[in-house]
Amino acid sequence: DVAMGALDGVPLTALGNAALLNRVDTKYIVPASVVPALIAACAPTYRALVVDGERTFPYHTRYFDTPGLAFFRDHVTGRLPRRKVRIRSYERGGPCVLELKRKTNGGRTVKLRHAVDTNDASALRALTGAPFLDAGTPGPDAIRATLDVAFTRATLVNVDLAERVTIDLDLAYASGPGQLTFAETAIVEVKQHRRTRSPVTELLRQARYRPTRVSKYCVGVAALLSPIPVPTYRRLLSHLHAPPHAAFPGV
User: Between 233 and which of 154, 187, 210, 222 could a Cys-Cys bridge form, CB atoms 3.0 to 4.6 Å apart?
Assistant: First the structure.
């Protein structure tokens, strides 16, 4: 919150095109310790999303998958199109939102959302036959709660481009008795209508941070459930535990 206070604020109602429910994503893994410097460097071009006077927000996400973890396997093997089904809770009194995320054959992320009253499987059953759950998605009776992920998010909004930047901190995972945290790591995600260089991606490039294919859901499944050999995610887990440190030029 202290770092985000250096930016002018923008309300949720002013997001407009920056809501980006149909977009391309670019992700980076950075040490949490460099986030204040990154935010400070963004001050000329970005605004901080403000909701009810707050600039950082605790999230809880419950992911659903088939018993055989079909969504996870599709992601690990790079299959397109692929899907995630999740219910996200906004911890400071916000609604629960059922989300279907699809990665299209063209590499775009398309998100469909539906407000629900709970984050358990009954919310999925209430949508049986709805267009929200398309023909390619297993029905509500074929998927189950698999993984819980909690984190704190800050959102930056570009004042010139249709672009949002989310910064997720304090990631905590749980699946049954298994638990995992990444307290020293942040995931920065640049969300754009089309992939283009922006002030944030330029700052990260200058500091020698490279884009990384990382899924918070797949990281948790690979770490806590390990159903199939996933060498890519073993490397990512090591990277999340000890991300490389670099300074931001001029900050």
Answer: 222
